[in-house]
Amino acid sequence: MRDAALHPSGAVCAYLRTVSRPSSSKKRSILPAFFPLLVSVMVLVPASAHPQCLDFAPPFKPLWHLEFCTQYEQFGCCDQKMDNVIAERYWDIIDQLDTRGEDLCEDLLKEVLCQECSPYAAHLFDAEDPYTPVRELPGLCSGFCSEFHGRCGHVVKYLTENRLLQDTSQRDASTFCSLVDLQDQDYCYPNVLQSSSLNSNLGRVAEDPRGCLQLCLTEVANNLRNPVLMLHSGDGTHRMFIAEQVGFVWVYLRDGSRLETPFLDLSGEVMTTGWLGDERGFLGMAFHPKYSENGRFFIYYSILVDSKLEEVRVSEMKASEHDVNVADPNSERYAERCLAVEEFLKRK
């Protein structure tokens, strides 16, 4: 999510943010939840459809022309680099086949490989749940799958190392297709291309009569207790840090999974109550601009002094020198009451 602004109507609008290989035998060319945390992204399709790529990012229009998976060059999940990777893989497989096998399968093989560029790649490869493995083959509708099995069953061994898929590709089509089928038939290939409700507005921003942009929400975390912030450290690791009001800060990896050990546990220090809507607790966190070099970050939270005096504590801490995913519990430095917070933050 690159930027966010307040729409004149009051709605919060969030704005989001590419081949072939020559050989001596073939002419080819290469071109240069308790409380789930949600983030909003620009609606690129109606609310009933949720286009998403395998990296959990939204689809986009490539900056450069796609030479191989050209059907997705206006809107999809591949940039030119990924398009070249898919093309290389295609030609590597074709080179393994005799002329008859190549003639039988080359068009279907290309269609299957290019589904990674589809704006619905996450659906086709069942990648939306970070706790289940991504499919090695996209979900294929029964009719297309039967044709693919009859013409391309001999190439499955080049597409996947999954022994079950390899073995069933040599058996009857129904057995093989039961493994690559999708439960939601609207999203299997090629049905996903034929649904007007899914494709009519791809890549377009929808605006209702009142001038509000439609937004869709993507769940990035769940089973959290009053999450109060989500931020990244700017260190190039693509980790997200999510803090709970009760005093925990959790690390979420790029694939959406959460580390079992919290980055920070101040639950014994933070003052919280059971009152609904109480704003006391862990209140904020910020990483030093040079966090990747010095590991420093700043926090502030509610505390109870001598069991009766409520205060807000501002502290500096550092990440552990032994584990970047854990804060050093002994590194906390409090801001003295008589010291201006600005001066405290400037201290080295």
From TrEMBL:
InterPro entries: 6-blade_b-propeller_TolB-like (IPR011042), Folate_rcpt-like (IPR018143), Quinoprot_gluc/sorb_DH_b-prop (IPR011041). It comes from the Eukaryota. Keywords: Disulfide bond, Signal. Pfam families: Folate_rec (PF03024). Residues 65-214 form the Folate receptor-like domain. PANTHER family: HEDGEHOG-INTERACTING PROTEIN, HHIP-LIKE PROTEIN 2. This is Folate receptor-like domain-containing protein. It comes from Champsocephalus gunnari (Mackerel icefish).
